[in-house]
Amino acid sequence: MTAYHFVLSVLYAGQRVNMGSLPDASVLSAQIHNTLISYHNIGEEEWRVAKKTKDVTVWRKPSEEFNGFLYKTEGIVNETPNRIVDYIRPGPYRLDWDSLMTSMDIVEKFDQGCCMMRYTTAGQLWNIIAPREFIDFSCTANYEDGLLSCGVSIEYGEAGQSCVRGFNHPCGWFCVPQKDNADHSLLTGYIQTDLRGMLPQSAVDSAMASTLVNFYTDLRKVLRM
Questions:
Q1: Which residues belong to any copy of the START domain (predicted)?
Q2: In terms of Cα–Cα distance, which of 14, 75, 82, 62 is closest to 220?
């Protein structure tokens, strides 16, 4: 068992985790950071294209965390990493542009740029996928010449009555400036979300790939404003 999985076994041993039982934020953020870097180093031959447009590509591979897929997505965004990540990480900007997110509250703030947040997402595919609620531990740190914003869901409290509680296994966004143009950044994301509930796998796969493409569309639009 890796140190990362040891930490998560502490987190997920029960159905609920009280704030007092959470591990040190710096320890958990370091482990998530290392896990995302391991995803970033996966060889190209392990990925299969799930969706491709002229400016975004989405790949996937079987997840090692749950019975679903780890998605990788990549595209160039015409902005600097600091400004891009300000719009991605938990904060005042996210609800202004992310068409999938319907609410977000910061439950607790920690040191080292970490927080715990509760957020909800809209229904998808004509509400075949009903609204979901997530509670995530999130952190942002420097990575090379750019930034890495990453997180993982934790079991905490009860889900809202109108939502199914989903679960994000380690996810994150690498944002680094282009070497030949510092005002353009390569944004690479790794997402593995267990939506839970009784859902057709084909619907989940279709929604995930399309959602990731739309994420770039919405982000680019708000950054041009």
A1: 44-225
A2: 75
Instruction: Produce one character per residue of 41-74: b if its CB has 16 or more CB atoms within 10 Å, e if not.
Output: eeeeeebeebbeeeebbbbbbebebeebbbbbbb
Angle at 56 between CA 60 and CA 29, to 5 degrees: 60
Express each pLDDT in 136-183 by its tens digit. 999 999 999 999 999 999 887 776 667 789 999 999 999 999 999 889
What pLDDT score does 149 carry? 96
Please tell me the predicted confidence (pLDDT) of residue 14. Answer: 31
192, 169 contact by CB (below 8 A): yes
Helix, strand, or coil (residue 34): helix
Q: Distance between CA 195 and CA 90 in Å, rounded? A: 20
Strand ranges in 78-209 using DSSP code E only, listed in sequence order = 101-109, 114-121, 132-143, 146-153, 164-165, 167-168, 171-178, 181-191, 193-194
β-pair partners for 120: 103, 133
- Residues of the chain scoring pLDDT < 50: 1-20
Distance (Å, whole) CA 63 – CA 40? 14
Distance, in Å, from the CA atom of 207 to the CA atom of 201, rounded to the nearest integer, reads 10
pLDDT at 164: 85
Q: Give the span between the Cα atoms of 130 and 148, in whole angstroms.
A: 30
Instruction: Say if CB 97 and CB 87 are below 8 A apart.
Output: yes
